[in-house]
């Protein structure tokens, strides 16, 4: 199994200080927000790793770090060599289909931009041909190229967004909640399109979502994030069958069940604490039903367990140790 | 959305060749802006008046009875002739003459040309300076933003007319005497621009700061499009709507500022009078009964400024999505 992307000890701080004059007058120190805190993961070539978590847990920041829109504060992001020998090229599909297309540009120009910037096609006819081909690939008509983005629905815009990402001939696609702004029926179409493209082109995905059922449909591996840290990472079916971290269990509780819609469910308790002032020890201890004194002071390390999952939780470590002792 | 299968069928029936684009004129005719223009009589009248005034001003050398720049054409015994419809009126002085024997109609045509040129020049220069500085301030933010906007604040805190007086007075002194007449228009354009750019810079900066965080800009950054091109081709077109309105209204304002400066005697020299200079000259004779020397330039100035303002107001309403 070749690794397409390896991320090691990635951290990103944002300067959220008040303006200089206010700081001087009010005698406040500089303030930093740690959006991504020391995370490591690997994405195998041709597979899909999903990052899940509630709003504000740093998923989108990871996406922008991986694509290079943000610089990491520390840690490394390494793409392995692609077909041509150069590092894999990454492109991105954005969350909001209404903000991700320039409202003043025709769809043709939106999709042609990567072709022109990277010099992938030379000459007007070659570019026109390639744009028509890309529009057809994502299920639109070549004639749609001369329209403006506002003439399309959300799902169609997301198709245009995908066509633009594909125009850059990427081998790696970062998808930042590509379906969260869409109707459920349209979500399925877009997800199926993305699966099809993955099969046909051998793409590798880093998929960001907060929707556990979407993630289950798309991914091979899932990493659960909480307040900038990965708390559990496992193969998809492993994670759904045997969620270990209390936070993962809480997230899985939120998935509606068609067969048993009125089952007893525990709504996720509490709010995500402010990342400006994260809790001590295990950051989840404020909402965790299993937390005790140790969780409040000692930060749990990431440990690997049988079945291939990695979890950062004292309780899981303790119960596994208890099981292991008699044997 | 329509099903992708149906779309594919359309696509295969109509292979890869996009339909021809409609021409520019056809697109203008079908645009919302044109519709709103043709349904607003005041805008159409204002546009007609403005076009007429601009065309006659620029055609002054062809249609004016007299070349007011040529002292040889001024004949003193033709001085103080009243307009043609009064008892003492004489051809070819339709609107009469001033104390130098200068034909008022010709002076107004040439003077409008000077005024309009200075108006257009200062708006274009203010736009160029304001848009580029505003884009940079909004896009890069931080230090550059602080410096540029504080400079703008300082300029805004001084009244426009005061800055203009200061600049034109200083520039006129700095210029060698033989260049003063030639450079007068340029100095005025510069003086009006110096305070005029700030408004554009502020508007563009605010809009740019919003647009630069939108995902379409990030998509362009991912393609490694250079910052200059992102600003010009991605962000600028999305900030232009309010700028167009402001530029139109400021065109009228610039003509007025120029007229004020010339009226105060620090604008255009007597040898190449603008409307403001004509008003200043005529003002001296207003109470001696020679009213036509001052009234007609004033009327011309009013027509230009009012028609520009009516057009600007229409544009503001037409481009406001809430009023559609």
Poorly predicted spans of chain B: 1-18
For the biggest sheet of chain B, the summary is: none
- State the oligomer: heterodimer
Number of helices of chain B: 14
Terminal Cα separation of chain A, in Å?
33 Å
Q: Which CATH class of chain B?
A: Mainly Alpha
Number of contiguous helices of chain A: 11
Average of pLDDT of chain A: 87
Low-confidence stretches of chain A: none
Shape of chain B: globular
Helix residue percentage of chain B: 55-70%
Q: How would you sum up the global shape of chain A?
A: globular
The chain-level structural class of chain B is: mainly alpha
Order of helices and strands of chain A: EHEEHEEHHHEHEHEEHHHEEH
CATH architecture of chain B: Orthogonal Bundle
Radius of gyration of chain A in whole Å, from Cα?
22 Å
DSSP summary, beta strand count of chain B = 0
Q: In what range is the share of β-strand residues of chain A?
A: 15-25%
Radius of gyration of chain B: 25 Å
Describe the structure.
The complex is a heterodimer of chains A (327) and B (324). Helix content of chain A is 34%, strand content 21%. Chain A is built from eleven helices and eleven strands. In chain A, a hairpin with a 5-residue loop joins strand 10 and strand 11. In chain A, helix 3 crosses helix 4, helix 4 crosses helix 5 and helix 5 packs parallel to helix 6. The mean pLDDT of chain A is 87. Chain B has one domain: MetI-like (MetI-like fold, Orthogonal Bundle), CATH 1.10.3720.10. Chain B is 70% helix and 0% strand. In chain B, helix 6 packs antiparallel against helix 7 and helix 9 runs antiparallel to helix 12. The two termini of chain B are 26 Å apart. The interface between A and B is medium-sized, with 43 and 27 residues.
């Amino acid at each position: 199994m070749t690794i397409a992307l390896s991320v090691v000890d990635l951290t990103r701080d944002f300067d959220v200080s008040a303006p200089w004059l206010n700081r001087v007058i009010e005698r406040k120190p500089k303030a930093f927000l740690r959006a991504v805190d020391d995370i490591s993961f690997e994405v195998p070539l041709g597979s899909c790793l999903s990052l899940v978590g509630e709003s504000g847990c740093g998923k989108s920041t990871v996406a922008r770090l991986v694509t290079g829109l943000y610089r990491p504060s520390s840690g490394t992001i390494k793409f392995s060599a692609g077909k041509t020998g150069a590092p894999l090229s990454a492109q991105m599909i954005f969350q909001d289909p209404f903000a991700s297309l320039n409202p003043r540009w025709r769809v043709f120009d939106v999709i042609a931009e990567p072709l022109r910037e990277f010099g992938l096609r030379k000459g007007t006819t070659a570019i026109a041909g390639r744009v028509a081909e890309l529009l057809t690939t994502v299920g639109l008509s070549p004639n749609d190229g001369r329209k403006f983005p506002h003439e399309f629905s959300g799902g169609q815009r997301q198709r245009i967004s995908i066509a633009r990402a594909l125009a850059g001939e990427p081998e790696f696609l970062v998808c930042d909640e590509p379906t969260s702004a869409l109707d459920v029926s349209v979500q399925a179409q877009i997800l199926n399109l993305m699966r099809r493209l993955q099969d046909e082109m051998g793409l590798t995905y880093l998929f960001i979502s907060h929707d556990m059922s979407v993630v289950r449909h798309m991914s091979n591996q899932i990493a659960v994030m909480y307040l900038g840290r990965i708390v559990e990472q496992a193969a998809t079916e492993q994670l759904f069958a045997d969620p270990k971290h209390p936070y993962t269990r809480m997230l899985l509780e939120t998935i509606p069940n068609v067969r048993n819609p009125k089952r007893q469910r525990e709504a996720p308790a509490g709010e995500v604490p402010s990342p400006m002032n994260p809790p001590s020890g295990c950051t989840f201890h404020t909402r965790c039903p299993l937390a005790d004194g140790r969780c409040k002071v000692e930060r749990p390390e990431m440990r690997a367990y049988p079945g291939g999952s990695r979890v950062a939780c004292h309780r899981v470590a303790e119960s596994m140790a208890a099981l292991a002792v008699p044997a | 959305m329509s099903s992708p299968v149906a779309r594919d069928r359309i696509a295969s029936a109509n292979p890869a060749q996009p339909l021809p684009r409609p021409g520019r004129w056809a697109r203008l005719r079908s645009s919302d802006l044109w519709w709103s223009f043709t349904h607003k009589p005041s805008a159409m009248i204002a546009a007609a008046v403005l076009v007429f005034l601009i065309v006659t001003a620029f055609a002054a050398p062809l249609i004016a009875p007299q070349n007011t720049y040529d002292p040889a054409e001024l004949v003193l015994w033709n001085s103080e002739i009243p307009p043609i419809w009064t008892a003492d009126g004489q051809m070819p002085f339709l609107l009469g003459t001033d104390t130098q024997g200068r034909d008022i109609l010709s002076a107004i045509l040439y003077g409008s040309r000077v005024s309009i040129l200075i108006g257009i020049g200062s708006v274009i220069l203010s736009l160029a300076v304001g848009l580029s500085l505003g884009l940079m301030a909004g896009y890069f933010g931080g230090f550059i933003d602080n410096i540029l906007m504080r400079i703008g604040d300082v300029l805004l805190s001084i009244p426009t007319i005061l800055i203009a007086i200061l600049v034109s007075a200083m520039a006129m002194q700095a210029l060698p005497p033989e260049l003063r007449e030639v450079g007068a228009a340029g100095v005025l354009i510069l003086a009006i621009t110096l305070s005029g750019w700030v408004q554009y810079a502020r508007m563009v900066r605010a809009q740019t700061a919003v647009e630069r965080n939108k995902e379409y800009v990030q998509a362009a950054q991912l393609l490694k499009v250079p910052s200059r091109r992102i600003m010009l081709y991605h962000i600028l077109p999305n900030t232009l709507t309010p700028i167009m309105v402001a530029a139109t209204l400021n065109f009228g304002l610039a003509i007025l500022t120029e007229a004020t400066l010339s009226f105060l005697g620090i604008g255009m020299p007597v040898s190449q009078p603008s409307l403001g200079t004509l008003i200043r000259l005529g003002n001296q004779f207003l109470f001696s009964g020679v009213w036509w020397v001052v009234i007609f330039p004033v009327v011309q100035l009013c027509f230009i400024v009012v028609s520009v303002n009516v057009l600007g107001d229409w544009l503001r309403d037409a481009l406001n999505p809430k009023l559609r």
